[in-house]
């Protein structure tokens, strides 16, 4: 069984209150080396057999039409869970 990973992030101009909250908490935990945090979404799509270019194309279409809101989010990654982009 193959797996395809889809990563979705808020567009840069969209406020990210959850990312801001995490960014504020990190220094309190002694992790003060990070200058910002953005939080996104990760989906794992399972397929029968190996991941093919056609399946990756189908996953891209699903990402753009069903897994993300194109008004406020960008699809930033669609790839085979083994790392093929």
**Spatial gap, N to C terminus:** 18 Å
Shape: elongated
CATH topology term: Mth169, Chain: A
Instruction: Catalogue the unreliable spans.
Output: none
Give the mean pLDDT.
95
Quickly give the CATH architecture: 2-Layer Sandwich
The number of domains: 1
Give the DSSP E fraction (strand runs of 2 or more residues). Answer: 25-35%
Q: How is the main sheet built?
A: 3 strands, antiparallel
In summary, what is this structure?
This protein has 85 residues and is of the alpha+beta class.
Mind explaining what this structure looks like?
With 85 residues, this protein is an alpha+beta fold. The chain has two helices and three strands. The radius of gyration is 16 Å and the shape is elongated. The protein starts with a strand and ends in a 5-residue tail after the last strand. Pathway: Purine metabolism; IMP biosynthesis via de novo pathway; 5-amino-1-(5-phospho-D-ribosyl)imidazole from N(2)-formyl-N(1)-(5-phospho-D-ribosyl)glycinamide: step 1/2. Part of the FGAM synthase complex composed of 1 PurL, 1 PurQ and 2 PurS subunits. GO terms for molecular function: ATP binding; phosphoribosylformylglycinamidine synthase activity.
């Amino acid at each position: 069984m193959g797996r395809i990973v889809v990563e979705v992030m808020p567009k840069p101009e969209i406020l990210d209150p959850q990312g801001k909250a995490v960014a504020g908490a990190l220094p309190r935990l002694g992790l003060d080396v990070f200058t910002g945090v953005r939080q996104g979404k990760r989906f794992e799509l399972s397929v029968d057999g190996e991941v093919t270019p056609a399946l990756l194309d189908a996953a891209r279409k699903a990402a753009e039409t069903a897994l993300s809101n194109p008004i406020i989010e960008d699809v930033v990654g669609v790839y085979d869970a083994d790392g093929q982009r």
